[in-house]
Amino acid sequence: MQVKNLVILLSCTAALASCNLFKKKPQQSDVTGWNYNDKNEGGYQVSKATEQGTGPGLVFVQGGTFTMGQTDEDVMGEWNNIPRRVTVNSFYMDRTEVANVHYREYIHWLTRIFPPDEEQGQKVLYAALPDTLVWRSELSYNEPLVEYYFRHP
């Protein structure tokens, strides 16, 4: 009989404790005491979390885990590519490739929004331009893709 009463008591306690999980979230900050979403008291806006929307022209690529490296035994070769498990996060990718003409259009738009004669405009433009000195390295000698890069001298 005591075991039955103990089970009932524990069940009631668990049920009452779980009711606390479904209560509304507080409408004011514990730290400052300001009411959320109130212009008169600080103006801090709290919005409900939503999923990220897919941008125009983007497709979602599901992440996953795979084994990178040599997984088959190569009798005649060296064992220099040790297999390891790699995890890739999900990401968005452009539906079509971006051509140089599109990137030049973007750079032109940047120069109109951020004038290059101002310091901030120079920083933005410099950060957006690709590194054309990459073709000056030793490994890129006689590289045929130099002529198809963003800017070719």
Gross morphology: flat
How helical, in percent, are the residues?
25-40%
Terminal CA distance: 92 Å
- Mean pLDDT across all residues, rounded? 79
Q: From the alpha-carbon coordinates, what is the Rg to the nearest angstrom? A: 30 Å
Number of helices: 3
Structural class by helix and strand composition? alpha+beta
The total beta strand count reads: 4
Q: Looking across the biggest beta sheet, what order are the strands in? A: 1-4
Contiguous uncertain segments of 5+ residues: none
Order of helices and strands: HEEEEHH
Biggest β-sheet, characterized?
Answer: 2 strands, antiparallel
Beta strand %: 5-15%
Description:
The protein is an alpha+beta fold and 153 residues long. It has a domain at 62-148. Helix content is 27%, strand content 12%. The protein contains three helices and four strands; from the N terminus they run H-E-E-E-E-H-H. Strands 1-4 form a two-stranded antiparallel ribbon. Helix 2 (100-113) packs antiparallel against helix 3. The longest helix is centred in the first third of the chain and has 18 residues, at 2-19. The relative contact order is 0.07. The mean pLDDT is 79.
